[in-house]
Design a protein that fits this description.
heterodimer, A: about 170 residues, alpha/beta, Rossmann fold, two-stranded antiparallel sheet, 10 strands, about 25% helix, B: about 800 residues, alpha+beta, Beta-Lactamase, 4 domains, 21 helices, about 20% strand
């Protein structure tokens, strides 16, 4: 998507992906149990290498969901993850994906990754690139299992994927 | 309908159409406006709802930059065919997705506008924010083409047309019915008005229709008609009275005398006003009473019932009459209620109401007009006014008649005096001529008279026959002299000095009958006609005092007239008798009667006028005039009884002689002869000089005769110078150059004591006029009588 005529700077891939991650907070509903306290922060966690840099902070700056101020955390490994509403699993975590998913099972955390076929393996939202555009693949079963309600509007603009074992 | 009702109908229809059309227009316009605004509002709302829905749906597409999804979501606008275009802008204001697919980007605004919806000329445009929660994701642009609204407007227009199309004919039908109800009374009124205006029939009335206020209108109209009818009636009556007034005025104008004017006025009033009774009374201011002058023919019965007939006096008392006489019109609506004699008198005659109008000329009421009717309250104010005006006209006409009468009288008097003057002029001319003739005749017969008298006196040896002849000559000369003297008497008003003597009328009659015998006997016999004259002379009738010759002439004239009146013969009677009048005075009557043609009244009335004659060229018209003059001079009376075809009797009535009557001097037979005198005789007539000279010389006088006045004066002067003057001068009056008066005055100048005797052919007239000429001692008329001359000489010489 090129709108050079506007003169504005064309957003980078990760800029867009940071906004997308933030946007998920708008189109999904977390149960109140997902938070330790009513004013507990809404945490966006980044597991593995950080492709966003400061872009994620820019995207969430000043934002809050209900009483929950939005914060960005970076996790180096699984053990660092305690309370997290959206977890971005970086490519770097390809090898540990299965463990991560197992660890995150039954936690009210939206998992997001750009690893190929990650949605079929159990990641709730997978970024893909199609015609130079970022597309979403969503595993509704996983989200549902995590007790997350996904807006139908989000579902409209995404590709619905089911979990496939053996891969 | 005969009258055109189109205008009112059309106007009414127009009114209804305009008003209902206006109501319709306002209603439909309001309705349409309301619908239009509501529709706009609802269009906006619908568009807003749709846009909100789409915007809400497109949040995810914007949030996750899924343009295809956004395009699919925008395609939902297909559900509304009027959505012409739509576009999604991202949060940066760039076009993200468009509808319909393939619409070029240039169709859309470069940047989204402020949120809200605005109507453009052909479209409704809106910008709807797209937000998820509080986060603004972009803007939705929508454009609707308003086709729905125009479709709606078309539908409304159709409905409006339908409504108008139905309601106007409906309004027409309803108004037709209403109009009929409304117009019916108006048209009925219009019909009535037309009837009134075209036929002038004010008796028609508009019929009440029982509709709305029209009855009030109709009643008012009818009331107006009634008033007009009354006014017209009054006007008509006024016109009739005016016409009557004119008729009467014209009728009175044709009459000249008051009773006739009154009669024609009353006749007109009784027939045309009409009144039951009418009369005119004339006012006698001095006697304070009124006299009935003329009564109307029809009302005569009323008047006679109460003895109110012509010439009856009606006293003026304090009643209506006196008020009327004071110049006021008096109307008594009911005479029964008026307690005065005159109204009560009319009431007794059966009249109830009366009007008395004064006849005023020059502020004087000279009479009144009384009108009466059987009914009370019978005179309207208009009639009273009419009678007042009429009385003014009648008064004027009466006045005119009186003036006319006076004028006629003046004219008659003038004509009479003119006639008299003319006659006197003729008589004067005749008299002058007669004087001239008399002078000449007197001169001519003077010698005859003088010589005859002288012969009878101085020739005792004359035979009886000669003496008789001479006596007859003398009497004839006397008659000639008197006749000549009387020729002038016609124009004399009164004989101032008439020599009266005792006259035996029987003898005079006999003389006249004898003298006129040729006329009543011989001439008729020559024509084969017989006039039988008889005299019935009563013996012992008294003498009368008079001039016998005048009486003889009068009788002669009467006999001539009687004979002329009997061209076919007849009886002529002369009758004398004595009559004793009631006052004890004795009178002697002479009747001269004939059985001739007689005279009609006009002739009898005029027969005494001088120059009036029925004999044509043969008559002088002086005969009876002379007789009448004689009668007057004798204080006698003349009566003429005559009828056409019955003959005529003329009666002369003289007072009988009584001892007291003065006797005039009897002529002395032979006067004492006076002494011998020297007499100067002056005359211009040689015959007279000769005869006077002869007779006076026989008396022993010494006569010097001169021819003409100047010669006489010269002779007298010469003799006086000689000392041998004349004792007496006898001179003629009428002489050329120097007349008797001049001679007399000259003689008196030369010798004032010498008597002068003036002889004149006009002597009788001078004597009669007591005209004593200055310087003349004695005046003797020609022909001179010897005994008179002797008496004068004796008187003057002594």
């Amino acid at each position: 998507m090129c709108r050079g005529a506007s003169g504005a700077e064309v957003p980078t891939e990760y800029q867009v992906k940071a906004v997308f991650v933030f946007n998920f907070s708008r189109f999904l509903e977390w149960s109140p149990q997902a938070f330790t306290a009513p004013n507990a922060p809404f945490v966006i966690g980044i597991l593995g290498d950080d492709p966003f840099g400061a872009r994620m902070e820019e995207a969430v700056r000043g934002e809050q969901i209900d009483q929950h101020p939005m914060v960005v955390r970076r996790f180096r490994n699984m053990g660092e993850i305690d309370n997290c509403q959206i977890l971005y699993i970086d490519r770097s975590e390809r090898a540990q994906l299965q463990q991560i998913l197992l660890a995150m099972d039954h936690r009210s955390t939206l998992t997001v990754s750009e690893l190929d076929q990650s949605s079929e393996r159990g990641v709730m939202v997978q970024f893909t690139t199609e015609n130079n555009r970022i597309r979403l693949r969503i595993n509704v079963e996983s989200a549902r299992a995590a007790g997350l309600t996904i807006s139908s509007k989000l579902l409209r603009s995404a590709e619905i994927v089911s979990t496939r074992t053996g891969n | 309908m005969p009258i055109s009702t189109t205008p009112i109908r059309r106007t009414l229809m127009r009114m209804i159409f305009l008003s209902s059309g206006a109501v319709l227009a306002v209603t439909t316009t309001g309705f349409c406006a309301y619908e239009f605004l509501t529709f706009r509002q609802s269009s906006v709302q619908q568009l807003q709802i749709l846009s909100q829905a789409i915007a809400s749906n497109s949040t995810a597409a914007l949030a996750f930059d899924n343009a295809d999804d956004a395009t699919v979501i925008l395609a939902a606008f297909k559900a509304d065919p009027h959505i012409a275009a739509a576009a999604l802008y991202d949060s940066q204001g760039k076009v993200f997705a468009t509808y319909p697919r393939g619409q070029p980007e240039t169709h859309f605004p470069v940047r989204p506008g402020a949120s809200g919806y605005t109507f453009g000329p052909t479209e409704l445009v809106g910008f709807q924010p797209v937000a998820e929660g509080s986060r603004r994701l972009g803007t939705l642009f929508v454009e609707s083409d308003l086709g729905a609204m125009y479709a709606r407007v078309r539908l409304y227009a159709l409905i409006v047309l339908l409504v108008i199309g139905i309601s106007l004919p409906l309004a027409y039908l309803i108004s037709r019915r209403l109009q009929h109800r409304l117009l019916q009374p108006i048209l009925a009124l219009a019909e009535t008005t037309r009837a009134v205006s075209e036929r002038h029939d004010y008796t028609v009335r508009a019929v009440r229709t029982g509709a709305y206020e029209f009855d009030l209108f109709t009643d008012t109209f009818n009331q107006m008609l009634t008033q007009i009818q009354q006014s017209e009636g009054k006007l008509h009556a006024q016109l009739e009275r005016l016409s009557l007034l004119q008729h009467i005025t014209r009728a009175t104008g044709e009459r000249q005398d008051l009773p006739s004017i009154f009669q024609v006025v009353l006749d007109s009033l009784e027939q045309n006003l009409p009144v039951d009774f009418g009369c005119f009374l004339l006012h006698d201011a001095a006697a304070q009473s009124l006299t009935v002058s003329v009564l109307g023919v029809a009302g005569r019965g009323f008047a006679e019932a109460v003895a109110l007939t012509e010439q009856v006096n009606v006293p003026l008392d304090a009643n209506g009459l006196s008020r009327c006489v004071a110049g006021h019109l008096v109307y008594e609506p009911d005479v029964l209620l008026v307690p005065f004699p005159f109204p009560q008198r009319l009431a007794a005659a059966g009249l109830r109401s009366m009007v008395i109008a004064p006849l005023i000329v020059e502020n004087q009421v000279f009479g009144v007009l009384v009108c009466g009717r059987r009914k009370d309250q019978a005179f309207s104010s208009g009639e009273c006014e009419f009678l007042k005006q009429l009385s003014e006209h009648v008064a004027l006409a009466g006045h005119q008649a009186q003036l006319n009468g006076a004028l006629q009288q003046a004219y008659d008097d003038l004509r009479q005096s003119q006639h008299t003057v003319l006659q006197q002029e003729r008589l004067r001319a005749l008299g002058q001529m007669a004087s001239g003739i008399a002078h000449d005749i007197n001169n001519a017969i003077s010698p005859v008279s003088l010589y005859t008298e002288s012969l009878l006196e101085r020739e005792p040896n004359l035979s009886d026959r000669a003496r008789g002849y001479l006596t007859t000559i003398q009497r004839a000369i006397e008659d000639v002299a008197r006749t000549v003297a009387r020729m002038r008497e016609f124009y004399r008003e009164r004989e101032a000095q008439l020599t009266l003597e005792r006259v035996d009328l029987n003898r005079a009659v006999r003389q006249v009958v004898e003298l006129t015998k040729p006329r009543w006997s011989d001439l008729p016999q020559q024509r084969g006609v017989m006039v039988d004259l008889t005299t019935e002379l009563t013996d012992g009738v008294p003498d009368i005092m008079g001039a016998e010759h005048e009486i003889r002439d009068a009788l002669t004239n009467l006999i001539f007239n009687a004979v002329d009146a009997m061209p076919s013969g007849g009886m002529l009677t002369v009758h004398t008798r004595k009559s004793v009048e009631v006052d004890g005075e004795d009178r002697v009557l002479i009747d001269v009667s004939d059985t001739g043609v007689g005279m009609d009244e006009d002739t009898r009335r005029r027969c005494l006028e001088p120059f009036f004659t029925t004999k044509g060229e043969r008559g002088t018209g002086l005969g009876l005039a002379m007789v009448y003059g004689m009668i007057q001079r004798h204080s006698a009376e003349l009566e003429i009884a005559s009828a056409t075809g019955k003959g005529t009797t003329v009666r002369l009535s003289f007072p009988a002689y009584t001892a007291s009557a003065v006797s005039t001097t009897q002529p002395s037979k032979l006067s004492a002869v006076c002494r011998r005198l020297r007499i100067l005789l002056v005359d211009d007539d040689p015959m007279l000089i000769k005869s006077l000279q002869d007779t006076l010389q026989e008396d022993g006088h010494q006569i010097t005769a001169t021819h003409g006045g100047q010669a006489g004066i010269d002779a007298f002067a010469t003799a006086q110078k000689r000392g041998d003057g004349f004792d007496i001068v006898v001179t003629d009056l009428g002489m050329p150059h120097v007349d008797g008066r001049k001679v007399a005055s000259m003689i008196k100048m030369l010798s004032s004591t010498t008597p002068v005797i003036l002889l004149t052919g006009w002597g009788q007239r001078l004597m009669a006029a007591n005209d004593i000429v200055p310087h003349v001692d004695k005046l003797l008329s020609k022909p001179p009588r010897l005994h008179e001359l002797r008496a004068a000489l004796l008187e003057l010489a002594s």
